[in-house]
Design goal:
431 residues, alpha/beta, Beta Polymerase, domain 2, Rossmann fold, 3 domains, six-stranded parallel beta sheet, four-stranded antiparallel beta sheet, 56% helix, elongated, disordered C terminus
C-alpha cells in the first residue's frame, strides 16, 4: 500500500507524554503558533504544515517536497526548546509515509491518548486543523487526510465502546454523587483541595454547570484555584464551620493528617437534618474511616472510586481490537481516496479542454442556423451539447480514476497516456 505521492514526503515529528514527563511538555510547545508555522513553511522546506499542541503532546504534521532536511528541522525545534540537538534527538519521534496516517487515525480514535478512548483529543485535532486551514498553512493533501481522519475518529467512537465509562477519579466521584443524591444543581457542595485531583473534580462539576465552594489550607490558593476552575473560594476555617449546611463534600489533598475527624462530623450531623455524602479522594486518606458509622453519613474512599475507574479502563482496553480493525479498514479506504485524487488534475483539464471544443462547435452551429431557431430551441441545443459531452467523457474519466487506484498499473504512466490522448495542457506537471 502506497499512501504518499512519490513527488513529496509526509512526515510527523512528535514529543508526547511517552517521551517526556507531562509537566515538561510545555517546554517543547510553540507559544507563537503562527510564527512557528511560517518558519516551517518559509525556511524549513515544508509545503504544508499543521501543529498540534495539547497538555499531552506537541506534534508537527508536514508535507515536504524533495528529500527533507530532518537535521535542520530538528535543530530549529531543539533551539526553540533550549536543548542541544543531541538531547532533543533522543526524545523526538519521527515517522514517515503511511505510518503518519496510521498514527493520526489512532490519535483521533483515542488509542494514543494517556487515557484510552478520551474524547477531548478529537476536538483538539479538529481545532488545530481548522486553525491551519483558515491561515492557509495547509494544502490539499493534509486537508484530505485530516478531514477523513476526523470522520474516522467519530466512527470508532460510534461503533465501539472505546470511550464508554468515565475513567478519571474526579469524574467518577461526581457521577457516583449524582447517582446517590440526584441532580447536583440545587445541592450545596464543598471541595477541599487545590491540586491535580481537586481540579479533576472541579472540571467534572463545571461540565454540569454545578456551583461549588472551594477551600484550601491557604485562602490565596483557594482563590487562585477558583479563578482558573470556577467555584467560590472560602477560608478553611469558615468552611469547617459551615459543614452542617453542605450536602456533598469532596476532599482531595495531600495533608498528612485527618481533615475531617469522627468527632467533627458527629458534631456536624447533630445540627443537620439531611444526609451528607463525603468523598475522600486523598492519598493518604484525610477523612477518618469511622465517620461511615455515623447515621446519615455516606463515605466513599479512593479505593472504591478507583475500583470503578479500573473496571471502566478494562472495558475500554477490551475495545482496542475492534478500533484497530476499523482503522486498518480505513487505511485501505484512505489509500484509494488519495490514489483517486491523483487523477483529478488530468480529469479537470480534459473536461476543460473538451468543453472549449463544445462551446466552439455550439457557437458555429448556432451561427449557421441563425434566425431559423428561437431562444428556446437554442437553449435545447446547448443542453444537448452538455449532455453529449457528459455522456461521452464520464465513462473514460471514471475508468481512469478507478485504474489509478489499481495497484496492477503504474499510475503515473496511466496519467501520461491520458494526457497524450486528450492533449492535456499541463502534461509537464505529471513528470
Amino acid at each position: 500500500m502506497t499512501l504518499v505521492n512519490k513527488s513529496f514526503d509526509l512526515l510527523n515529528f512528535r514529543i508526547t507524554y511517552k517521551e517526556a514527563p507531562i509537566h515538561l511538555l510545555e517546554k517543547f510547545a510553540f507559544k507563537d503558533v503562527n510564527s512557528a508555522h511560517e518558519t516551517f513553511l518559509e525556511h524549513l522546506q515544508m509545503k504544508e504544515c499543521l501543529i498540534l499542541q495539547t497538555c499531552n503532546r506537541v506534534e508537527i504534521f508536514a508535507v515536504i517536497e524533495e528529500e527533507p532536511n530532518l537535521q535542520k528541522i530538528i535543530s530549529y525545534w531543539a533551539d526553540h526548546s533550549n536543548l542541544s540537538t543531541e538531547e532533543f534527538s533522543k526524545i523526538v519521534e519521527i515517522v514517515r509515509g503511511e505510518e503518519v496516517i496510521r498514527h493520526l487515525l489512532k490519535l483521533v480514535a483515542g488509542l494514543d491518548s494517556l487515557v484510552i478512548g478520551e474524547d477531548q483529543i478529537l476536538g483538539q485535532v479538529k481545532r488545530s486543523y481548522e486553525f491551519s486551514r483558515s491561515n492557509n498553512y495547509l494544502g490539499s493533501f493534509l486537508s484530505i487526510i485530516f478531514e477523513k481522519s476526523l470522520r474516522v475518529g467519530s466512527k470508532v467512537r460510534s461503533l465501539t465502546g472505546i470511550n464508554k465509562g468515565r475513567v478519571s477519579v474526579g469524574s467518577v466521584a461526581v457521577s457516583v454523587a449524582e447517582e446517590s443524591i440526584g441532580r447536583l444543581n440545587d445541592k450545596k457542595i464543598l471541595l477541599i483541595g487545590s491540586g491535580e485531583g481537586a481540579s479533576l473534580i472541579a472540571k467534572a462539576l463545571k461540565q454540569r454547570n454545578v456551583s461549588f465552594m472551594n477551600t484550601s489550607r491557604t485562602y490565596e490558593r483557594a482563590k487562585s484555584f477558583a479563578e482558573s476552575l470556577s467555584g467560590m473560594p472560602i477560608m478553611f476555617e469558615d468552611a469547617l464551620i459551615s459543614l452542617h449546611s453542605m450536602d456533598i463534600i469532596f476532599v482531595s489533598t495531600t495533608a498528612p493528617y485527618y481533615l475531617l475527624t469522627h468527632d467533627r462530623i458527629k458534631k456536624t450531623m447533630g445540627a443537620k437534618n439531611t444526609s451528607l455524602l463525603i468523598f475522600d479522594l486523598s492519598n493518604p486518606r484525610t477523612v477518618e474511616d469511622s465517620i461511615s458509622q455515623i447515621d446519615n453519613v455516606f463515605l466513599f474512599n479512593l479505593d472504591q472510586i478507583g475500583g470503578i475507574v479500573q473496571r471502566n479502563l478494562e472495558w475500554r482496553k477490551a475495545e482496542i481490537q475492534s478500533a484497530d480493525k476499523i482503522i486498518e479498514e480505513e487505511m485501505k479506504n484512505m489509500d484509494l481516496l488519495l490514489k483517486r485524487r491523483k487523477a483529478d488534475p488530468v480529469v479537470v483539464s480534459v473536461f476543460r479542454n473538451v468543453d472549449k471544443i463544445r462551446k466552439r462547435e455550439l457557437n458555429k452551429a448556432l451561427s449557421i442556423l441563425g434566425p431559423k431557431i428561437g431562444p428556446q430551441e437554442g437553449k435545447i441545443i446547448e443542453q444537448f451539447s452538455h449532455a453529449l459531452l457528459e455522456g461521452i467523457m464520464s465513462t473514460p474519466m471514471n475508468n481512469l480514476r478507478r485504474q489509478v487506484q489499481n495497484d496492477k498499473y503504474d499510475e503515473q504512466e496511466l496519467m501520461r497516456l491520458a494526457a497524450k490522448l486528450f492533449n492535456y495542457e499541463n502534461e509537464a506537471n505529471l513528470q
